[in-house]
């Protein structure tokens, strides 16, 4: 992300760990201030990186920080040192390299950023409120907001999926308090989250979670399925056993392979070494399409092996007291 309000370029520790880089250097600046001139974050050193943009190598010094609204922010030091021009009317960056010539980079159509309340607010019961929100970028349009579903469930808030316009680090959103009591939200409460790289949800043949899976795939979010064996509650299912016998595999292998064949990251749990070895033996064979369709049809009944927070509350599931103990 390029930010004309940031004086220096920044990169998160997790992003930096993904690729080889020169050793980090100590810096005289322990704190970096974002483009809003108020958000301060701790700096853990600096590193010189070579960033390729349209095959043009561009070197820049970046501060290392713990977290950002993006993996990397290219600030004004990057723009000045590399002769970068922000063409806002044309919605593009113009990069003029002395050796490799000029190239342009279009602005993203949609970006994902975390947003939080700009100030504390009292929400009257059963009323809609327009609230002011802060975003860690100076301006952007459109911005997709991924809502904090746990906050909405806990506070009984209704917030529709929205596409926002950010202007001078601020935007606005409509929030409905559906509770029978007033609700107070403190300043800096996180309302919208940045796009996750992975979404971990319950996935097995009896619980497809199709709506969430489709959303993740449309938005380039990897799907990680927990409980691929349905907590062993369906391990003796006749359909699974029949397919396992036909393929000379265990029922657990069939269930794990079903997830793998659908393109899910799957995380079966076991405490026994023999089962661990068996569970990992799912990559050199496949389930025939006809049997995959049979396994897929098991999801028509929509059976869950654990609590589904998208379908009912903790109280409705009888888990509120258990979790509070």
Description:
- The strands form seven sheets. Strands 15-20-11-13-18-16 form a six-stranded antiparallel β-sheet, with helices on one face. A four-stranded mixed β-sheet has the order 4-5-1-6. The protein has a three-stranded antiparallel β-sheet with strand order 7-8-9.
- The chain has three domains: 9-106, no CATH class; 111-193, Deoxyuridine 5'-Triphosphate Nucleotidohydrolase, Chain A (Distorted Sandwich); 198-301, NADP-dependent oxidoreductase domain (TIM Barrel, Alpha-Beta Barrel).
- 21% of the residues lie in helices and 32% in strands.
- β21 (198-202), α4 and β22 (222-226) form a beta-alpha-beta unit.
- The chain contains nine helices and 23 strands.
How are the elements arranged and paired?
Elements: E1 9-12, H1 13-16, E2 31-33, E3 40-42, E4 46-53, E5 56-65, E6 72-73, H2 76-81, E7 84-87, E8 92-97, E9 101-106, E10 111-112, E11 115-117, E12 121-123, E13 127-134, E14 139-144, E15 146-147, H3 149-155, E16 157-158, E17 163-167, E18 170-177, E19 183-185, E20 190-193, E21 198-202, H4 210-218, E22 222-226, H5 238-247, H6 251-261, E23 265-266, H7 273-280, H8 289-297, H9 320-324
Parallel strand pairs: 1-5, 10-14, 21-22, 22-23
Antiparallel strand pairs: 1-6, 2-3, 4-5, 7-8, 8-9, 11-13, 11-20, 12-19, 13-18, 14-17, 15-20, 16-18
